[in-house]
């Protein structure tokens, strides 16, 4: 890997972030279309914010596995739409009750609770609409498999289930294993889905390595989030800093301590990178993304 190749990761990421923004803009209904307020709120919640880590994972694994760009676009958009819906619902008073998201008022604050509820429902539906586009894949079984991956990642045995466990864990003392199990569902499931959807055209060896990589980097993502919730300020995070501590939620920092949590993030990063060893420079972007995820200013 040359120095120039490593240095151009920000340019690659920016190109892909711009691309997914355009794909999402095209997929979302215009706010000139009825119901105007709902469509306006959907666009408010899904466009113009975030690092698009899940979309970047889709594109990076697509490059490794030679997955076509149209399939990668649909996969990246579907994952980002599911993620956006989860954030809208997460921020509502009945969930985490947060007034700030991506540096601007949460959907329910900018609009209202009922609209936010419908926004989440509609974004989730749109994700499956995008991924089920007729003839997106030449192999129909491949497309059905992709839909199944996303459905499981978003449901009660994935993201939604993890959120349910999270809500039930407030004020409780969890073991490290219980916390990992929760976050493998709440955060890790959708990150793993993003990587696996991008790897739709991969060999068994590639898909197996991507799965190990994504499992570890998905957990590392949450560990780093917990560290940043302790160390970063609201302006840096784009959401309310210290929210988990204030809500008496168990985190990696509260269970392990700050130094051990940082060591765990490093360990998960190393395991993720090791899984990519057989692929050399073809996995460059995935290795760079692992660094991007685990070295977010702490």
Supply database-style keywords.
298 residues; mainly alpha; Farnesyl Diphosphate Synthase; 16 helices; 71% helix
What's the short story on this structure?
The protein is an all-alpha fold and 298 residues long.
CATH homologous superfamily descriptor: Farnesyl Diphosphate Synthase
Give the CATH class: Mainly Alpha
Q: Flag low-confidence runs.
A: none
Total domain count = 1
Structural class: mainly alpha
Per DSSP, what share of the residues sits in E-state strands of 2 or more residues? under 5%
Please write the string of helix (H) and strand (E) elements.
HHHHHEEHHHHHHHHHHH
- CATH architectural group: Orthogonal Bundle
- Count the E strands: 2
Can you describe this structure?
This protein has 298 residues and is mainly α. 71% of the residues lie in helices and 1% in strands. It is built from 16 helices and two strands. It has a two-stranded antiparallel ribbon. Helix 3 crosses helix 7, helix 4 packs across helix 10 and helix 5 packs antiparallel against helix 7. The protein is globular and about 50 Å long. The two termini are 26 Å apart. The mean pLDDT is 92.
Ordered list of secondary-structure elements with their pairings:
Layout: H1 3-7, H2 9-27, H3 36-46, H4 53-65, H5 69-90, E1 100-101, E2 104-105, H6 107-110, H7 113-131, H8 140-154, H9 159-168, H10 176-198, H11 204-231, H12 234-237, H13 243-246, H14 252-256, H15 258-275, H16 284-294
Antiparallel strand pairs: 1-2
